[in-house]
Amino acid sequence: MVNQNLKAPEGPPSDVEEIKERSNYLRGTLAEVMLDRLSAGIPDDDNRLMKHHGSYLQDNRDLRNERQKQKLEPAYQFMLRVRMPGGVARADQWLVMDDLAQKYGNGTLKLTTRQTFQMHGILKWNMKKTIQEIHASMLDTIAACGDVNRNVMSTSNPFQSDFHAEVYEWSKKLSDYLLPRTRAYHEIWLDEEKVAGTPETEEVEPMYGKLYLPRKFKIGIAVPPSNDIDVFSQDLGFIAVIENNKLTGFNVAIGGGMGMSHGDKATYPQLAKVIGFCKTDQILEVAEKIITIQRDYGNRSVRKNARFKYTVDRLGLENVKAELENRLGWNLEEALPFHFDHNGDRYGWVEGIQGKWHYTLFVEGGRIADFEQYKLMTGLREIAKVHNGEFRLTANQNLIIANVTNEEKEKVNELLKQYGLLVGSHISALRRSSMACVALPTCGLAMAEAERYLPVLIDKIEEIVDENALRNEEITIRMTGCPNGCARHALGEIGFIGKAPGKYNMYLGAAFDGSRLSKMYRENIGEEEILNELRVLLPRYAKEREEGEHFGDFVIRTGVIGATSDGTNFHE
Fold it and tell me: What is the pLDDT of residues 415-472, one digit of tens each?
């Protein structure tokens, strides 16, 4: 029941709310328009619904102007994202995704910052076949995008392998429990028959309701001391509490989110705040009730202010906690102590439990492809053919070849060497700590390059790094092509947000463990200015840092950038 003392914002519903209202539980006219061969695209209303099925219509922006000159429609294609809680895939599922990328995609896979696969370049008439083959591998794309709970993240750190399995199982349970109940996906893509004689009005969404959520919702589970999933960036974060070598429950953090809009001070990145502790078997109920609060009180009029972080700020943290406990019928316990020491990945071979091994591989920009001198996709395909364990996708766009037996290890290592995939000193710590969103040419929101440009920029920054003996110093560096934050730029010690072609806002000062946001340092600057700034800052850091001091802490201590009041949010 809605609390009469709490109010949702007033105002007319946004166009997306109206689309959902008349969509018949996310069906729209998708089944019909996907059969239309006259255009490679689909109407905008259906594209808004398509997100809930795990896909976006895009076009190749590199070709946009030329096609306009030729009076051709844009080079439409679809991005398809898999729902894969915890980022765990079997070796045979990896081979399926590899095969589909070759048959229907652009020949590459993208490892996303939410621990799943993304394929680009799928043509409209190949979408149904692609989704059906993904489904046959026991994966799916349901709710990988859209105004629902997205892919649930969980720690992938091999140092935590003894708890990984248990936490991973909870990420799967959360993902399944929070799925939309509409059968639209199964009817449209998997040819499921609609139950005869069931009126449309009888279909219900017991948790989401007919309009689903006001915006996307993100959940992640971290296992200290590793904050590899950036738990404070989530709408809802669970922080595992281990006592006497046993998982006893989770600290609950709410209201995180990385997105913002340039020049709009009503939008901002924010870190989630811890509100209490729940026992392990209470995690599903806590997640459900928090989602229903966002369902009832989120902003359905202005989508830029529709994320849960704005709901928490508008209603007040304590009021949201009280409403949660009212809906639960019991109170959260006091949060228990925890400590994070980093938010990156640990590379190379690590021994796990029960005689199994894990190899963490650096994947620049998360792009699995064959390059001229680096046959990454082929090498991983060959490893998948001999590997009986798992592939774990990390939240930093990297890959763990996991649960390798002693018998397999030698063969896997040989293939890593053969294809030049071993992580060595030729890859600087700065590069290993980098992350970039897709941006151009496929993302329709991108204002500037990210994935294609960050490696080039790092080439030039590495010259400064090497001159100052910082090659082995981990400094997190992240770049996004727009302010939506897909690469969690606000948690990079050095962060770049695309403003225009070749121009970025530069941010500094985030914490190495993901517990403090960065702040704007320079606005709307290009490569030359970026390098000039780093030619001053990095030598200073090399000479003036204290023992064990990370770059983000250094720039705040020395006054290069001012700290926010509590480190949890900022405004431009």
Answer: 999 999 999 878 999 999 999 999 999 999 999 999 999 999 999 999 999 999 999 9
81 is catalytic: yes
Give the span between the Cα atoms of 440 and 208, in whole angstroms. 33
Which residue has tokens 């046993």?
Answer: 246
Q: One-letter amino acid identity for 105?
A: G
The answer to whether the CB of 435 falls within 8 A of the CB of 390 is: no
Looking up tokens 């939240």 gives 395
Question: Is 20 annotated in the active site?
Answer: no
Question: Is 486 annotated as catalytic?
Answer: yes
Question: Of 27, 443, 488, 516, which residue is the catalytic one?
Answer: 443
Q: Which of 27, 215, 218, 300 is catalytic?
A: 218
pTM of the predicted model, to two decimals?
Answer: 0.95
The whole-angstrom separation of Cα 229 and Cα 514 is 9
| CA–CA dist 162, 275 (Å, integer) | 27
Catalytic residue among 27, 110, 150, 367: 150
For residue 570, what pLDDT band results from cuts at 50, 70 and 90?
Answer: very low
Kindly name the residue from 83, 295, 482, 519 that is annotated as catalytic: 482
d(CA 244, CA 238): 19
Q: How far apart are CA 254 and CA 324, in angstroms?
A: 11
Give 152-175 as a 3 state SS string.
CEECCCHHHHHHHHHHHHHHHHHH
Catalytic residue, chosen from 437, 478, 516, 519, is: 437
Confidence of residue 133 (pLDDT cuts 50, 70, 90): very high
Instruction: Say if strands 219-222 and 236-243 run parallel, antiparallel, or are unpaired.
Output: parallel
**Residue 278 a catalytic site member:** no
